[in-house]
Amino acid sequence: MLAVHFGAGNIGRGFIGSLLHQSGYEVCFVDVNQEIVDLLNQKQAYKIGYADDSKKEMTVTNIRAISSQTHPEQVVSAIAEADMVTTAVGPNVLPLIAGLIAKGLAKRVQISDKPLNIIACENMIGGSSLLKEKVYEQLNESEKEACENMIGFPDAAVDRIVPNQSHQDRLMVVVEPFYEWVVDRTGMVGKVRVQGMTLVDDLKPYIERKLYTVNTGHVVAAYLGYQAGFKTINEVMANPTIRDHVRNTLEETGQLLINKHDFQDQEHQKYIEKIIQRFSNPHISDEVTRVGRSPIRKLGPNDRLVSPARQYMKYVGKQPVYLAKAIAAALLYDFEQDPDAVTIQKNIRQDGLESTIQHYTQIPSDSDLMKLIIQQYHQFSL
Ligand SMILES: NC(=O)c1ccc[n+]([C@@H]2O[C@H](COP(=O)([O-])OP(=O)(O)OC[C@H]3O[C@@H](n4cnc5c(N)ncnc54)[C@H](O)[C@@H]3O)[C@@H](O)[C@H]2O)c1
Ligand SMILES: O=P(O)(O)OC[C@@H](O)[C@@H](O)[C@H](O)[C@H](O)CO
C-alpha cells in the first residue's frame, strides 16, 4: 500500500507519516525542502522520540521522498498509483499543491478505478473540502465526473503537539505521546484502515472542540506570553496570571461548545485540564513564535479566536471578554520575523486599528465585539 504525504515537516514526519507507517503503508513524502527530501531518500528511515519520561523511540522505515519543485512528474505518477493521499503543509499552502494533485488525479482516472481518499491534516475547519475545491478548479468536466465517486476528500481534525525540532539528527522528531486523528467517515470512499484514526459521522463537534480548545488556549498562551517576554509555552504556563487567562478563555470557549454541541460539562472540564497539562509538558520546548505564527490566518473569521468570540455571543449571550483580550494580544503581536505580524502592524499604522480589525476578522465596524476588542487593545496589560 502506498501513501503519498505532502509536507515532511513536524506533523508530517512526527504524526501522520508515523501512523501510516505503523498501518503498513509505504510513505512517499512530497516536500519543497530539498535538504529534507535528500536526507529521507538517503537514510530511508527516521526516528521518533516521545516527550515523556520513557525515553522511548521508534523508527519509521519504508519511506521515500520526492521534491515537488524538481520532480513534479514523479509526484503526479505517485498520486496516480496511491492508496491514500494526506497533507500537512499549512492551510495557506493547500491551494499551491492543488495543481499537482489535480494532474495526479487526471492521470489516475485514465489508468485505474481504485478509490482514493485525500485527507488534509491542517488546523482548520474544512481543510479537505477546501483542497477539493481548489483541485476541482483545475480538472475538466469529464475528469471531475470520473473523480466524483472514486475520490473522497474527508475533512479531519488532527491533534498532537510537535514543536520545531533542533536535533543533530535532522530527521528525528520528538513528539508528545498524545494524539488524536478524527476523520469524517461520510466523506470517505472505499475501505480505509489506519491505526489510530477515529472515524465519525459528524466531524463538526470534534473539529470545533479541538480548534477552540487546544488551538485557542495555545495561541492565548503564545500572544500573552510574547507580551510578557517569554520564549516557550511551558515557561508561559508557569506564570499564574497568564495560566489563569488561558483557563478563563477556555471557560468561554467551553461554554460555547457545551451549549452548541451538548458536551457534558464535567467531561469538557477534564478535556480542558488535560490540555493545560499538555501545554505545560516539561519535556517539550515549544516556542511562542511557532504557536503564534501567521497571525493573519489566526485572526481569520473562521479561525480559533474570532469564530468562538462571535459564536460565544450567539450561544452564550454574553460578552467574550477573555477572547477579546486574546484578539487584542494578536493585534499587538509584532514579532519582526513573522511576515503576517509585520503586515498587521503596518496596517494598524497606516489604516488605523478599527479598519485593520475589520479587514482581517470581518467583524462589523459598529458591533459590540468590535468595541470590546478596541477597548481591550487600548487598555491591554498583563
Ligand atoms: N506542529 C503541530 O503541533 C501541529 C499539530 C496539528 C496540526 N498541525 C498542522 O499541520 C500543518 C503543518 O504544520 P507543521 O507544524 O508540521 O509545519 P512544518 O513547517 O513543520 O511543516 C510543513 C512542511 O510543509 C512543507 N511545504 C511547504 N510548502 C510546500 C509545498 N508547496 N509542497 C510540499 N510541501 C510543502 C515544508 O517544507 C515543511 O516541511 C499545519 O496546518 C499545522 O497547523 C500542526
Ligand atoms: O499550527 P498552527 O499555526 O495552526 O497552530 C500552532 C499550534 O497551536 C498547533 O500547531 C498545535 O501545536 C497543534 O494544533 C496541536 O495539535
Q: Can you describe what's shown?
A:
- The protein has 382 residues and is of the alpha/beta class.
- It folds into two domains: 2-200, NAD(P)-binding Rossmann-like Domain (Rossmann fold), CATH 3.40.50; 204-378, N-(1-d-carboxylethyl)-l-norvaline Dehydrogenase, domain 2.
- Helices cover 52% and strands 14% of the residues.
- It is built from 17 helices and twelve strands.
- A hairpin with a 6-residue loop joins strand 3 (45-50) and strand 4.
- Helix 4 (94-111) packs across helix 5, helix 14 crosses helix 17 and helix 15 crosses helix 16.
- The protein is globular and about 60 Å long.
- It binds nicotinamide-adenine-dinucleotide and D-Mannitol-1-phosphate.
- D-Mannitol-1-phosphate is lined by residues 123, 159-161, 214-215, 218, 291, 293-294.
- D-Mannitol-1-phosphate binds at residues 123, 159-161, 214-215, 218, 291, 293-294.
What pattern of helices and strands is seen along the backbone? EHEHEEEHEHEHHEEEEEHHHHHHHHHHH
Bound molecules: nicotinamide-adenine-dinucleotide, D-Mannitol-1-phosphate
Quantity of strands, as a count? 12
Distance between the termini: 52 Å
